[in-house]
Amino acid sequence: MAWIILFLAGLFEIGWAVGLKYTDGFTKLWPSVGTLASMGVSVALLALALRTLPLGTGYAVWTGIGTIGTVIFGIIVFQEPANALRLAFIAMIVGGIVGLKLITTH
């Protein structure tokens, strides 16, 4: 169950990272409210997952999910570069997440 909660926390991290782009430096009310709410939910879910998962593993996976999702969003929505080298480094992050999941006993 902790891994599901951690995955959801990572999805909300994507939400607040992407939301920052729309807040215009926290000068737009509703994007700012949504971004701050997503931050709160993300951190609260991370805290729940860390009740049973090791801190380093949980934090690494949480930030990895956020990083991967934010990069994919940027490529699709903002037409950011998707060259082979960039995608290879993102694949390494995916490999790290999978590896941490495989070696964690909780």
Q: What report would you give on this structure?
A:
This protein is mainly α and 106 residues long. It has one domain. Helix content is 81%, strand content 0%. The chain has four helices and no strands. Helix 1 runs antiparallel to helix 2 and helix 3 runs antiparallel to helix 4. The longest helix has 23 residues. The termini are close together. 23% of the residues are buried. The model has no long low-confidence stretch (mean pLDDT 96).
SSE arrangement:
Layout: H1 2-23, H2 29-49, H3 55-77, H4 84-103
Helix pairs in contact: 1-2, 1-3, 3-4
**Could you report the average pLDDT, rounded to the nearest whole number?**
96
Topology pattern, helix = H, strand = E: HHHH
Put simply, the count of helices is 4
Q: From the alpha carbons, calculate the radius of gyration and give it in angstroms.
A: 15 Å
Overall geometric form:
flat
Distance between the termini: 9 Å
